[in-house]
Design brief:
By secondary structure, the chain is of the alpha+beta class. The chain has a single domain, classed as q2cbj1_9rhob like domain (Jelly Rolls, Sandwich). About 20% of the residues lie in helices and about 20% in strands. Strands 1, 2, 3, 5, 8, 10 and 11 form a 7-stranded antiparallel sheet that branches.
Length: about 270
């Protein structure tokens, strides 16, 4: 069983780099296999909970050769809910951040198909998650755990982090949907003298990376013959508050423990 002490020494690295990449699987393979089956069912429009995901830019029947991004897949799949509740995920998140409470508040299914040609729309442009998260108060402690369901190699279009970029402040030029990563980088207001050092998140199935909400990241095309499968699990600690007491947008479901479980500690 994964213990707090397994990750405690990684906290200084997370704080310095703005991300942490596990070196071995965090989840058992049976749980990963179930989550893959759940992912495929959602992509077919089959929901074993009887509830669909939130409205998304990709829906069942859309172009299978385009990046598939589905919002809150845990609404629709018991297997995805089980993955989110696996205790090691909360243990890792708390050990890296020092949090006394960690809650899932939004999840995204990400399925990157093989790029058949240069026109494939499957890249993820450089961005900071925080630029899309205005529903949270300034200074809120927010971060993301990225769970790999497939073998993520250099050829499969891994997520790439810019080391130390969580210290650069908000860079509003980021664009999740941009396809030309080099052109987007050239437009960004990187602080003078800052080093742009990219680190790929190479992960086995069941591996996890965790990144700060201000860490720049993006990814290129999947040049293998298999899809790159993952879930982006957005997390908050006890040091995060919604802007409005009325739950809206991305904070709409945080009072529902079935959909947005607390995976470490308690409120």
């Amino acid at each position: 069983m994964t213990e707090w002490s397994d990750f405690q020494s990684a906290r200084p690295q997370y704080e310095a780099d703005g991300f942490y990449i596990t070196q071995k699987p965090l989840f058992p393979q049976a749980l990963i296999a179930d989550a893959i089956a759940g992912m495929d069912a959602i992509r077919r429009g089959e929901y074993d909970t009887g509830r669909p995901p939130c409205p998304s830019v990709w829906n069942p029947g859309d172009d299978p050769d385009r990046l598939c991004k589905i919002e809150n897949p845990q609404f629709a799949s018991r297997a995805v809910r089980a993955l989110l509740r696996y205790p090691a995920l909360g243990t890792l998140a708390a050990a890296l951040t020092g949090a006394t409470m960690v809650q899932v508040w939004w999840v995204q299914l990400l399925y990157k198909p093989p790029a058949k040609d240069d026109s494939a729309v499957s890249n993820i442009g450089w961005h900071q998650d925080r630029q899309y998260w205005g529903v949270w108060e300034e200074g809120s402690e927010l971060f993301t755990a990225w769970i790999a369901l497939s073998d993520v190699t250099e050829q499969s279009g891994p997520m790439r982090f810019v080391r130390g970029s969580h210290r650069w402040g908000v860079l509003p030029q980021g664009d999740f949907f941009a396809q030309d990563l080099d052109a987007l980088r050239a437009q960004m207001d990187v602080p003078p003298g800052a080093l742009w050092e990219e680190v790929p998140a190479l992960l086995p199935p069941g591996g996890v990376s965790v990144h700060h909400c201000l860490t720049l990241h993006g990814s290129g095309p999947n040049q293998t013959d298999r899809p790159r499968r993952s879930f982006a699990v957005h997390l908050r600690t006890q040091n995060a508050r919604p802007v409005n007491r009325e739950r809206r947008g991305l904070t709409e479901f945080i009072d529902d423990p079935e959909l947005c479980p607390i995976i470490y500690g308690h409120l």
